[in-house]
Design goal:
The chain is of the alpha+beta class and 318 residues long. It contains ten helices and nine strands.
Length: 318
């Protein structure tokens, strides 16, 4: 899932929208009202007229300004200015943090050839229905006992997702809304169409109708929609995951104990030893092979097939 210019542009547009919203809100709520009422600045000087109202300067105030160069200009809207500076700083931090935060949620553009190769293998493994089994490289959340309300909460998620996905039955609509197919040139049972802005957003919140990826099967006419994938940050706890989707109903999965070859050597590496299907599963063995060990590569993921008829198949993990 390599980031294209279109994806970078889409991400930048979203941040610019946020910046425009922040500035517009500050102007409309504070500055405009202050300026329109003549109260944006008050000049306070020694000897000024105490009776002069906000925004009014009498002749003694002007004289005082000339006679007292230490006169001060006090803004009645300094709080608004501070809020604007804070918003600008937050937006700048978002730009700096965006790449890291997005990677915490879902497979995103790899930093080197080893991660690229591993990512290809991971998505290839996820391309089948019922594809997840417990292996040294795969962690599944434990199935918790069902609690009151779990089933109802899961049903609400499925209903919300099913309704949201209807518009994406035409995969062209998905593409126009920022979902991009991963490796269309490689035959797969399930194709992932991923929206990187939604992957970034899922780092901070969970919305059932806003999945990270859409799942399609290949058909004569293009692609047929079958499901979706939610993601969560790599450091999410079981409590966090259960708050998103009940662990008594669904089993989130993570790709763990991954040893990657040294940077720049992916093409010549022995992928029977390295990667998500490799024989190396410990940090010690990875170090001995001169590799780079990742306790977990990418964030948590769960597939949902809302058009299936039974809960077992809707939340199928194996």
């Amino acid at each position: 899932m390599r980031l294209t210019d279109r994806q970078r542009a889409l991400f930048g547009e979203k941040l610019l929208e946020l910046a425009n919203y922040a500035v517009t809100a500050l102007i409309s709520r504070g500055w405009h009202s202050g300026l329109s009422r003549g109260r944006f600045f008050q000049r306070v000087t020694p000897g000024g007229d105490p009776a002069a109202g906000p925004g009014q300067l009498d002749s003694r105030s002007h004289r005082a300004n000339r006679e007292h160069p230490r006169g001060v200009l006090i803004s009645g809207k300094m709080a608004d200015m501070r809020r604007l500076l804070l918003a600008s700083a937050c937006i700048a931090l978002m730009w700096l943090h965006a790449g890291v935060a997005a990677q915490r949620s879902a497979p995103t553009p790899p930093a080197d050839d080893g991660q690229a190769k591993a990512q290809d293998a991971i998505v290839g493994a996820m391309s089948g229905h019922h594809m997840h089994g417990v292996t040294p490289h795969m962690r599944l959340t434990p199935q918790r006992p069902e609690r009151p309300g779990d089933r109802q909460r899961a049903d609400v998620i499925v209903a919300s997702l099913r309704a949201a996905l209807e518009r994406y039955r035409d995969y062209h609509v998905a593409e126009r809304n920022g979902f991009e197919i991963f490796h269309p040139e490689i035959p797969q049972a399930i194709f992932h169409f991923t929206n990187y802005w939604k992957a970034y957003s899922e780092t901070f919140r969970f919305m059932p109708d806003q999945p990270t990826s859409l799942l399609y099967t290949k058909s004569a006419g293009g692609y047929d929609l079958v499901g979706a994938m939610y993601t969560a940050p790599v450091d999410a706890t079981e409590i966090d995951l259960d708050a998103r989707v009940p662990l008594s109903v669904a089993r989130w999965h993570a790709h763990i104990n991954i040893c990657l070859p040294p940077r720049g050597s992916a093409a010549a590496a022995d992928w029977k030893k390295f990667g998500p299907d490799g024989s190396i599963t410990t940090a010690e063995a990875c170090t001995a092979a001169r590799g780079r060990f990742f306790p977990q590569l990418f964030g948590w993921m769960v597939h949902v097939y809302p058009f299936e008829k039974t809960a077992d198949r809707i939340w199928a993990a194996e």
